[in-house]
Design brief:
Elements: E1 6-7, H1 8-15, H2 19-27, E2 34-35, E3 42-44, H3 46-60, H4 65-73, H5 77-117, E4 121-127, E5 130-137, E6 140-141, H6 145-155, E7 162-167, E8 176-182, H7 183-189, E9 198-200, E10 203-212, H8 219-233, E11 242-245, E12 258-265
Antiparallel strand pairs: 1-3, 2-3, 4-10, 5-6, 5-8, 5-9, 7-8, 7-11, 10-12, 11-12
Helix pairs in contact: 3-4
């Protein structure tokens, strides 16, 4: 068959790729054009188009161009199947991360809607189970290697971690700043939740949605005491450790608005 030849500029336009891409593909031996020795022109034909389409199939599946070159030049059928299975696992993990990211966007959006619509009111709500690590105590970082290794692991899990203040209900004068992550998310991400990570079970809570300008350094403790009185007046009794969920402050006109979700466990 006498195949029509196309110059590199023509082939580039027909295939919707740049000249730079074609030269890179030639370097990796994905496309090997016919070269006119007299003028050094490169010519492509229909079969090069087929190779281009096949290579684009693999790169769009998530393989690098270099990996694609090995697949279409060197590998037999069993090796190709192995490559596809490995990429399938990689793509499945990326899908999981994307789905979790979408869920996290919705969670954070719902938080901000609470601050917009329910600021400085309370409701009864179920707080999800948390894994968390206490990494700051009374204003100082906890300098323990295990703690910081786990903190490092959690930081890599953004956007899924939340800053929380943790108040053991038996000692309200003691407080920790902690990094928390929902237990269900931690399990899906397969992160290490062994000690010094702590587990906080799902609980029914008196939830206070706090949003206000405040510049007092010790405002949280005084706020907690005030909210506990409101709770008691409503007939509820504290039954567990208090979690104050933060990280939602606003800065309209450069002035800080403190926004916290205060989760106080109560008896069912």
């Amino acid at each position: 068959m006498n195949l029509k030849k196309y110059k590199i500029s023509e082939f580039s336009k027909l295939m919707g790729v740049s000249l730079k891409t074609l030269k890179h593909y030639e370097k990796l031996k994905i496309l090997i054009p016919e070269v006119d020795e007299e003028n050094n022109y490169r010519y492509y034909n229909f079969y090069h188009g087929g190779r281009m389409l096949r290579s684009k199939c693999f790169t769009n599946l998530g393989f690098t161009v270099k990996e694609t070159s090995h697949i279409i030049n060197d590998k037999g059928i069993d090796e190709i199947i192995d490559c596809l299975q490995r990429q399938e696992a990689i793509n499945a993990k990326e899908l999981l991360l994307l789905r979790l990211r979408q869920e996290r966007i919705e969670e954070i959006k719902q938080r901000y809607m609470l601050f917009r619509d329910k600021a400085n009111t309370w409701m009864i709500a179920d707080r999800k189970a948390y894994y968390f690590i206490k990494h700051v105590q009374n204003g100082a970082f906890i300098e323990d290697e295990k703690t910081w290794n786990r903190v490092d692991d959690l930081i890599k899990c953004q956007p899924h971690i939340t800053e929380i203040f943790y108040y053991p209900h038996k000692s309200m004068t003691e407080n920790f700043i902690a990094m928390g992550i929902y237990a269900e998310t931690a399990e899906k991400l397969k992160i290490d939740v062994s000690k010094p990570m702590l587990y906080l079970k799902e609980e029914k809570c008196f939830l206070y949605i706090y949003s206000d300008y405040n510049e007092e350094e010790e405002y949280i403790l005084s706020l907690l005491n005030r909210i506990l009185k409101i709770m008691e007046n409503e007939g509820f009794e504290l039954s567990g450790d208090i979690v104050v969920e933060g990280g939602f402050d606003q800065y309209p006109n450069g002035k800080r608005v403190f926004q916290k979700l205060i989760w106080i466990p109560i008896n069912s």
